[in-house]
Amino acid sequence: MKRCLIAFILTAACLHAATTFQLTPTGTLAGAPGSTIGWGFTLTNTSNYLVVTGSSFTPTSLYGTYQDYISTYNFIVAGPSPESTTVTQAFNAAAHTGVGAFTINSTAPSSIKITGNIVIDYSVFSQDPNSPNFDPDTSTVVADASISAPAAVNVTPEPASLLLLGVGMLGVFRVGRRTR
Hints:
This protein has 180 residues and is α+β, with helices and mostly antiparallel strands. The protein has a single domain (19-178), classed as Immunoglobulin-like (Sandwich), CATH 2.60.40.10. It is 22% helix and 42% strand. It is built from three helices and ten strands; from the N terminus they run αβββββββββαβα. The strands form two sheets. Strands 1, 3, 5, 7 and 8 form a five-stranded antiparallel beta sheet that branches. A five-stranded mixed beta sheet has the order 2-10-9-4-6.
C-alpha cells in the first residue's frame, strides 16, 4: 500500500511538471461594464496525451460571469506525435476560441479589480484520444487533474461616462470663473 501511494504521488508530480499553462495576454484584462473580454492560451504537455475537460474562473464574482470556451467549443489534445505538444489559441468571442470569456455585469462599479485564477481541468491518457484504437478504460493515466494561472479583470469607466464627467467638470470650471 505504501509503495502504491508513493508511486501515485511521484506519477502525479511528474505529470504536473510536464504540463504548463499560460494565459495570453497574461493575467489582467480591462473592460467596461456590460462588455465581454477573454483570454487566449498556450498549453504545453510533453508526456502522454492531455485532454482538456473544462475551465473556470475562481472564485466566482458578483461582478461578472465566466464562460468556458476551451472545452465547450473545442476538443483540445496536447501530447506527442501525431498531436502537438504545444497548443496555442487566441481569444475570439465570435469564434468561441481561447480559454474562456468573462462578461462584466452592466451594474459593476467602475474602477474595481476582479481577481482570481483560470483553472483548466484535464485528463491524461497513455494513448492518443484521436486514435481509432483509443479505449479510455485502459488508457487513462490520470482521470482528473488541474492547472491554473492568475487572472484579473479591471472594470473601466465607459467612454460615454468619461465624456459626461469631462463636460461636467468643464461646466463647474466655467461657473467657478464667472462667480469671481
